[in-house]
Amino acid sequence: MNKKPILEINWKKMDGLIPVIIQDISSDKVLMLGYVNIEALEKTISTGRMWFFSRSKNRLWLKGEESKNYLYVKEIKPDCDSDSLLIKVKPAGPTCHTGEYSCFKESAENGLKFISELYYLLNLRKKELPKNSYSATLFKDGVDKIVQKIGEEATEVVIAGKNESNQRIIEESSDLLYHLLILLIEKNIPLDKIVLELKKRNSTKTRQKAE
Question: Where are the domains of the chain?
Answer without folding.
Answer: 4-91, 112-210
